[in-house]
Amino acid sequence: MLTIHAAPLVLPVGAAAVVDGAVAVDGDRIAALGPYEEVTAAHPAARVRRWPGLLTPGLRQDRPAELLTGCYHPDPRESAELGELPLWGAEFERLSATMDAARRAGSVRRGLQRMLRHGTTHLAGPLDAADPVLRTAVSRSGLVLLPPPAPPGPPDLDPFAAGGDLARTVGAPLTVGGRADLAAFDVPDEAALRAGGARACVATVLAGRLVHRAR
Length: 215
Hints:
Distance between the termini: 24 Å
Number of strands: 11
Number of helices: 8
């Protein structure tokens, strides 16, 4: 079923912004992009999902290996003991000393889910292909793998933490016929998105599938 994602502002990257815009998604591809009235008129039977703020391409995470294997993402059932945020440094080393494969795999999966909640749809390597836990989790996630960059600064779940603008932070521009990787953010414009970061993400669409929706 064709789905239209609409927002007060669509920023395709590489093309003009669209006020009161929409992106029509058919399967895992973008079928149309433009003003809401035009897109809905061309696809009257489509399901419509309206998002607040901005609709952008999905974001690119430049430090996935560190965020997935260099820290521990607690299970919600461990929150009373370990809290809810990723654990780094000595605390991570203490846990990893006794961590079995199942617990480690759970942490990696939760790390990927956290990335999706930040609008991430693309991962820049290198990722250890010899690590079966990491390889399996990333493969099943559907996230797109890209060649590695040389990012400065510490790893952060927020792709904007490195200081790049939207064009330098997305995985790929939104184009008709391109893969439908989108993110919606509850902010009014790109300046507010960069200032507040990807924690404003309210929805992530990965290859046409709604994989995150803020409650």
